[in-house]
Amino acid sequence: MKIGFIGLGTMGGRMAANVQRAGFAMVVSDVRRAAADPFLSAGAAWADDPAALGAQCDVVLTSLPGPPEVEAVAEALLAGMKPGSAWFDLSTNGPGLVRRLHAAFAARGLHALDAPVSGGPKGAASGKLAIWVGGDKGVFEAHRRVLDAIGDQVRFVGPSGAATVAKLVHNCANYVIAVMEAEVFSLGVKAGVEPLALFEAVRQGAVGRRRTFDNLVDQFLPGSYDQPSFALRLAHKDVALAAALGRELGVPMRLAHLTLEEMTEAMARGWGERDSRAVMLLQQERAGIHVAVDPERIRAAMAADKA
Question: How many domains does one find in the chain?
Fold first, then answer.
């Protein structure tokens, strides 16, 4: 099986190196010919453009800056790839474009799968990457060993575009959390706590000890809010006290005040004795969704992750 790799930049170059180290025959291409030199020296072949690369390969991997570059390369691949071959795009993209390209490739007997990655340059170099895949599950399984050469957490998410949605959810959460951390830590520092001492303290609390998204397991995913582990009325009091401290010290607390407004609305619904995360039901109402996953499925997913 011959692997093509397009995009040998900060992320792509490191991922391509892991593919090559795994022993796959490779064809590489990049807008900068010099970026390919290490791969050519190790035995890879060069292609002048994506169409020429696609014509030689069974699987094509791309790591590109964004949607415009992905769309341009995809058009060239459509002109060159052999029927039955597969394209995995490792870029972060938009789900609408991903699904349009999936349909265009399918019309020509080709397979297009979105496969965005998470782990940054260090993860790309070490192989400690999460790779989320959307598309045809059979095609994913047939070529999974190529992805296993790149990342240690390869997961099929669902149909075309599903992996891209997961990546956008992940990255958006990351930066929302970063803004929140800046807000609450600025409060703590302004209140006189030394920054490292504050960090050392809060990371040993309930939030600090738990993996970020594991806080969805007990209430949000099963849709269970009526046996509280911490009552909404008590959480409302705590956030109100933090917001009051911010006002006293002149620290802007935009996210805290937004959260307090949400919690106050939930309190007005009569939810004070429900679990504090019942506030999450308000956003579900606005989005027109209802989340209630079978607890057995949740337990199985958590057990598989630990394994």
Answer: 2
- Same structural domain for residues 286 and 202? yes
Sequence-distant (≥ 6) Cβ neighbours of residue 17 within 8 angstroms: 38, 39, 125
105 and 223 share a domain? Answer: no
Q: Are residues 171 and 98 in the same domain?
A: no
* Per-residue pLDDT reduced to its tens digit, 118-169: 999 999 999 999 999 999 999 999 999 999 999 999 999 999 999 999 999 9
Q: Do residue 6 and residue 149 come from a single domain? A: yes
Same domain, 194 and 136: no
Please check whether residues 208 and 302 belong to one and the same domain.
Answer: yes
pTM for the whole thing?
0.92
Mean pLDDT on 177-191: 97
Q: Which residues pair with 3 in a beta bridge?
A: 26, 59
Confidence of residue 8 (pLDDT cuts 50, 70, 90): very high
Query: Are residues 255 and 116 part of one domain?
Result: no
Q: Is 167 a catalytic residue?
A: yes
Residues 198-230 pLDDT 10s? 999 999 999 999 999 999 999 999 999 999 999
Domain with 132 in it: 2-159
Residues 149 and 174 in one domain: no
Catalytic residue among 167, 190, 237, 306: 167
In tens, the pLDDT along 117-132 reads 999 999 999 999 999 9
